[in-house]
Structures are given as structure tokens and as C-alpha cells.
Amino acid sequence: MDEKEKKQISRRNLLKGAGLIAGGAALSTTLPPLATEAFAKPTSKTSACEPTFEVYDTDVLVIGSGLAGINAALTSFAEGANVLIADKGPFKASGGGGMNWGIIVRFITNPQIYYDFAINASYGMINQKLCRKIVDTWNDLKMEQHLVNNGMTTFFRNPDGTMYMPEKPKGGAKVLYNYYCRHDQDEIVKKGIKVVDRTMITDLFIQDGKCIGAMGLNITTGTFRVFRAKAVIGCGGPAPWNYGWISVAPVSINSPDNTGDLDAIALNHGCKLIDMEFVENDAMNIYPEGLAATCNGGFAADALEYRYLCDKDGVYWLRDIPMSEMNRGRFSQEIAKRVLEGKGSPNGGVYLDLRDPKAYQSLFEREVYSRNIKPYKERFDIDVKGMMMEVALEQYESEGHPVIDENCATEIPGLYFGVGGGTRGARFPSTSGGTINGAIIAARNAVKYAENAPKVKKINWKPVHDEFNRIHALRTKKVSKPLAPHEVRHAMQRACFKALGPMKYGKAIADAIKELERIKKYDLPRMALRNDTKQYNIEWQQAIENYFMMDMSLANCKSSLFREESRGTHFRTDFPKMDNDKWLCNVAVKKVNDKMTVEKRPIVWSEYPPAKVKELLEKGLK
Amino acid sequence: MQVTIKKYDPTKDAEPYNKTYEVPWKKHMTVLEAITYIHENHEPVGFDYSCRGRVCGRCSMMVNGEPAMACFTHIMNRANLLEPLRGFPVIRDFIVDKSKTHDAMGRILNRIIEKPITDREKILAPIDPALAKKIGAIEWCCRCLSCVAACPVINEKKDQEKFIGPAGIVSTALRYYDPYDEGDRVTEAVQNGLFECIMCGKCNKACPADEIDHLKIYAELRKAATDRGLKPKKA
Q1: How far apart are CA B71 and CA B60, in angstroms?
Q2: Per-residue pLDDT at A514 exceeds 60
Q3: b/e for B68-80, b at 16 or more Cβ within 10 A?
Q4: How many Å separate Cα A396 from the centre of its chain?
């Protein structure tokens, strides 16, 4: 299949998926003619109802203003490019970067030790060439200086004013607490980098197989925006928002901004998604429901506090495991196993025993937890001191993304990803470090590409018209027995929750896929808005996102079903052993002709050939 | 429980209007849960949130007349009135445009420094614990602008020219305490209306970051200004 065919197929798929029941024909009469001039110069006979397109032009377009996006934009600026950010959230930042929380960051002290550690932590799944570049970039960056020069102040301190800097047992890096990413946003203001915010990218602009920009919806007023660029850096989040639903959020601290839009768009343009079966978990309080699995609004236990976890009978079943044998993957699995044995809490978790003074004291190791003690008491009359706190495993990150090479380039020329498939594998030891440095590498290569980007001789605006039609059809569509976007979304979230937990079971995943396919076939076409306003219509946004979440959810489930072994956070009760002979490979999802298929893909290696990785995983690091 | 929402879609409504909905109350329910219930069971509402933990600043609004984070505020089992955050242009329902204040804060928060810091040891060195505490407290500001909505000087006197408001002064304070900043932040605070503040403490009450002690910050800046003879004559 050539690029043109591929493009047409993916376009058709999007349209087919959108279920254009009504509106398409009616809208086409109000569209501008299919000519470049229609965008460049307004016609003299502009009528009141004629849609207006805003066209932005830049060297480098960064999509998403989280940790990756901001660093990609700052790097592009430093490299001398004109750069523009399109971001879904308000305030010039969203996702993880839009929350002002005490992020944990590391600076590298020994790149080789850290590199080996990353290969091991990723269970061999990381792209070794890319990992080398990330670790080297990180080492050169001098993380603590990078952040302080972006506005950070003192980091988290001990009561005597010395730096709180616990040594990690594996070494290779030192850890700093409480990096507040809002400073990066001010750096964007300082440099005068334009952020087109509250703008949701709904499609890439692909021409002759190359990425020449993106397009999407200005959520504030409902206008349509087209971004032309010589190079595009995708910095959107994955879709942990698909993992269950409580009352205001899934069982995830992640942001509602993260519905996997960009990854799904790339998939629909022929990119392969890899590592979609891997996620990251923490055990967080799930009561009060409104504060369940909140980002920073509650209390958590992770692989460091496992000694204070007990089951419903008050048994500390993890205490015999030495600290040296505990890691996040095992931590999740041990909790999940206990719940499966019927020893869990009513909501499928376990308990953090804050009656133990040491456990209570451990909350003060992270200010993001200890700062909630007072408001829980004052605002909700909940005294956590002395409490048996119910905690359940939430999914705070999902590792799969469109596959990239060691230059962070995707399979589409001109399209780079700040956090791409292969940067993390089953898990990267530092999410913030991997994200920031991946974005820097992506930006450097995107700027280089932009400088020599092939000239676009003639633009075919049809994809823009089609996309305009698609999203407005979603807004105006009328169907019998309509479903509101949140109803469709909650159905997807329920399906994923049953399949994508820390203990996966083949039959349950297969059932979830069946349910997702039913939702795709019967529910998505019934989705209609209750209010067709163009002004900040969150239902409209959700309706568009639901198509992306559907692709991401199916990719998560299909990859999880395909990998018939257990590795890192991917734990299959029906295949409980790690099987390096069959599965020391990545799992890639692709979508052709609206058909999603899954395949094995050899790991990308340089310093450690597969046999050596196998040895490393089976015998452990020295 | 009855929840009244001040609704407004400027593309359709001539004026904002109040609409009341029945919501089943539950123990420890948050305002955000009540709004989500209305959105999902009654009719669509324009609202925004992200973290559910008072670090993103996106869900601030007026709860029974006082600024609050919807995600982190307990809703009482009584008649409740929810309105958009006071003093900001409304885009729709609870969505307001905070860009004017955010941009002003961003400009203030840019560190004034001659050369980049290139010394790891300097960054990792111990500092005065009292200073570390002051800085660490202000770092928790999530820019929700509840303080600005609470401020009587900003909202009742409408003296935009004279007073930047609590969020701007607190931003100045971060750089005033910042050991790396080389700017004259005291003059900046005075120019931004440090002495226009009436020290009523409403900003401090509204602020979701318990760590930030607004009145102490203003007092320290005022003392520094007074010591340097920068206190305006009228104040």
C-alpha cells in the first residue's frame, strides 16, 4: 500500500467511525470551496454562517503542553526555531505539567549504571539506542541546573535546611523531591512562545505521506484551527483515563486531558503503537469517592511503604519480603493476589495502617501526602492519624505510544514524539527524567528536519474540510435513542477496568475486547450531544475524545491479550511466568482498513543483544 | 439536596441565570461530585477540572458566595449556590478566563538573574531552614486565583490600576525570598500596590494551599519597603 492509499484508508476509517448519520450533506453547502485561497483570503461574499478557519504557520508545532511539550518547545526555541504550542488545557499547560505538584526528579551521577538499570527496569523492552541517547542527554543536561534555571527554587529540604536527597539503592542517579513544573510555564511566557490553548488537536495534517501540521477544535468558541508546520512534535499523554470510573475520575491520578488523542491519531495514519500492555500502578486511598485516586489530594503507599500494608484481617502479609526484592511490579502483583484470595477490602484494595506511628511518619517523606492530613480533618472531618486507610491500585501512567526511532522520529516524516513507544518499555525508572529528555531529543531532531523540510508545492485542503465536517457532524447529530458522551465513555471505562488491572486474565481481556467492539459498533454511532452549542461544549470535546479512547482501549486490551506471559506490570494469571524465549520482543498494534492487528516486533538493541538482556533479567544486575 | 448553578452561555443567553437541581447528597461528597451528577443526570454544565487534589487550579469557583476548589470542598446537605469565580470574564457556566492575572503572574515569576546557575554544589548546599520553609510554602500556589476572587480591594474598589491583587504580590514574594533572584522585588511589590492591601486576610482563608501565610508575607514585604523608605505617604 502506498502512502496515498494509506492516507485515504485512514481518512475513511475516521469518517466511518464517526457515524455521519446527519449533518454531512447539510454542512457541505456552508463550507468554503476546495481551494487554498479560501483559507488565505476571505471571499468577498462571506456570509454569516460560513465557517471560518484560523490558519497558523510555524517552523515547529508542539502538540500538548505537559512536561514533554514544554521542554520540546523550550528546546526548539533554544535551537533557533519559531515554535508554537497547541494545548488542550487552559493556563498554557495541561496534563502532568498543568498540575503544580512536587514531582520527583533525578540527576545522573553515573550514566552507565543508570543505563543498565533502565534496561533492567524496562524488562528489556526499552529501545536501547534511544535509552542511550536519553541517559546521555540527561547527564549533559544536569537536571538540577536545568530546573533551577527554569525558575525552580530550593527543592524539598530536611528540617535543618539540607537537601532531602535519599540515595537510591541501585545508584547511578540522585533523587530530588518537589520540583514544581509551573515554573516551566513561566519560562514559556518569558521567551514569548505562543501557546494556543484550549485547543484540541483532532487530526494531523498529512500530505504526500509527510506531516505538515495538525488541525483541531478551539474548545472555547468552537472555531476550527489549522496549524501548518515544517515539523510536528507530538507530546500528548496516553489514555489512563480509560481505567474505570468512580464518581469524578477513573481509578487513576492521571488527568482528564489524557485520553490518548494524539497516539490514536497517529495510529489512524499508519503508525504502530508499542508497549500498550504496560502500565504503572500505585496504591492510593479510594475514599472519599470524590478524592479517590486524586493527584496529590490524598495518601498513597508504594514500593517503599509496603511494610505498612495489611489485608482485611489485619495481617501484614508483605513484611517477610526484603526491601531489596521489592519493586513496583511485584508490589502491584502482591496486592492484586491478596485481593483475589478474598483478603482484600470491600472496594478491591487493601489497607494502609496509619495506626502504626512509623507508617504515619512515612507520609511526611512526601509533602504531597502529608499536606493533606490537615484539610482532610478540617474540611471532611476525617482524621487519618490512627486510621486503617483503604487503598487500591490506581493506574498512574500507561507506557505505550507510537513507535519512534533513536531520533524520536515516528514512521511519518516530519512527525516526532516527545514520549514515544520504546522510551519506556515495561517501565522507565524515572517518568519525569525520561519525559523531559525524550522531549529534548525530539525537539533537536525536529528543528533539524524543519530546517531542511521538503517544500510543499501544493496543498490539498480536502482533509481539513473532511475533519471540519466530521467534528461538526458529531456536534449536530440527531439519532433515535441517543447516548450522551459520558455514558459511552463510562461503558468503555468499565470494560477496561475489568481487563487492564494489575492481574490480567485472558478470558477477562477477551470479554473486554468483545464489549469494546460492541460499544464501537452500537453505542458510538448512537452518541449525540444534549446541547449543540459551540461555546466551551465539554460534551463535544468528550464525544471527539471517545473515538480516540476507543482506539487506545482496544490497543491496550489487544496487546495485553497477545502477550502470553508475565513481565513487569503486565501480569497474566493464566501465564504467570516471564518467558524470555518467546516474549523478549515488543508487541506492536497497527490499524489498517479499520482492522486492528497485533504483532511481535524485535527489541531494538545496541549494547545488550537479546541473549545478554535475558541473562540480565534472569540473573539480575550485579 | 438542592444545588443552584448560575448558568450562562454567551452565545445563547442574554444574561446569566440561576437554575436549581435536585442532587442526592452523600457523606463526604465534594462540590465537583455534585456538579458531575448534574451534568450526567440533569443537563450539560460547562466546567473544568484535572487533578482533584488542589494542584491544578482549574476548578475554582464560588461556593455559597466564597471562592473554593470544587474538587476539594465538602458540599453540605442544604441548599447550595454555585457560581463562576468572581471577577473573571465568563466563557460558559463555570469556565472563566484567568489569562490576564496568569500572564501578570508569569511575568513577575520570571527570575531576574544575570547569568545561568552552573554550579551543582551551590544548588545542593544547605540553606536557612526558615527561608526554605517560606519558599516551599509559596511553591504550592496552584494559580487557582481564589485569592483574587476573595479580595475586597480588587472586587469592590475595582482599582485594577493600583493593586495587582494577592496572587501577584505572592508571586513577587517568591522571587523576593528566592536566593538566586537579583531583582528589586520590594520596589516591584510597592509599585504593584503592596500598601493598597487592607490586610483583611480573606485571601488567606480562600487559598487552598494551607502552607501559604499571606498576611505574614505582606507584613515582611511592607517592613522591607518601609525600612527602605518606599512606603507611600498616603498609606
Answers
A1: 8
A2: yes
A3: bbbbbbbbeeeeb
A4: 9
Confidence label for A362 from pLDDT (cuts 50, 70 and 90) = confident
Question: Rounded to whole angstroms, what are the CA distances from B144 to A101, B54, B71, B99?
Answer: 14, 8, 12, 11
**d(Cα A226, Cα A220) in Å, to the nearest integer?**
15
Measured CA to CA, the distance from residue A372 to residue B210 in angstroms comes to 9
**CATH tag, B99-227:** 1.10.1060.10
**pLDDT attached to residue A78:** 97
pLDDT in tens, A159-174: 999 999 987 656 799 9
pTM: 0.92
Cβ contacts of residue A519 below 8 Å, gap of 6+? A488, A491, A492, A495, A550
Q: Would you list the domain boundaries of chain A? A: 1-102+112-127+178-278+399-622, 281-395
φ/ψ of A534, rounded to 5, equals -90, -10
Quote ipTM for the complex.
0.96
Per-residue pLDDT band for A622 (boundaries 50, 70, 90) equals low
Residue A347 scores a pLDDT above 60: yes
Helix or strand run (H / E) with residue A497:
helix A485-499
Q: A153 and B180 in contact by Cβ < 8 A?
A: yes
Whether B99-227 and B2-96 are alike in CATH topology: the answer is: no
Comparing A23 with A223, which gets the higher pLDDT? A223
Given CB atoms, is B66 within the 8 Å cutoff of chain A?
no
Closest-CA residue of A relative to B27 is A288
CATH T-level fold of A1-102+112-127+178-278+399-622 = FAD/NAD(P)-binding domain (3.50.50)
How far is C-alpha A164 from the chain's CA centre?
Answer: 29
pLDDT above 90 for B14: yes
Instruction: Say if residues A215 and A128 touch (Cβ distance below 8 Å).
Output: no
Name residue, grid cell 485520553: A259
- A145 with B44: Cβ contact below 8 A: no
Closest CA to A477 of A531, A397, A551: A531
* Burial state string for A24-56 with b = 16 or more CB within 10 A and e = fewer than 16: beebeeebbeeeeebbeeeeeeeeeeeeebeeb
Q: What DSSP string describes A184-196?
A: HHHHHHHHT-EEE
Whether the link from the prior residue into A169 is cis, omega within 30° of 0, is: no
The superfamily (CATH) of domain B2-96 is Beta-grasp domain (3.10.20.30)
Put simply, whether B14 touches A (Cβ < 8 Å) is: no
Asked if the Cβ–Cβ distance from A100 to B141 is below 8 Å, we say yes
Sequence spans of domains, chain B? 2-96, 99-227
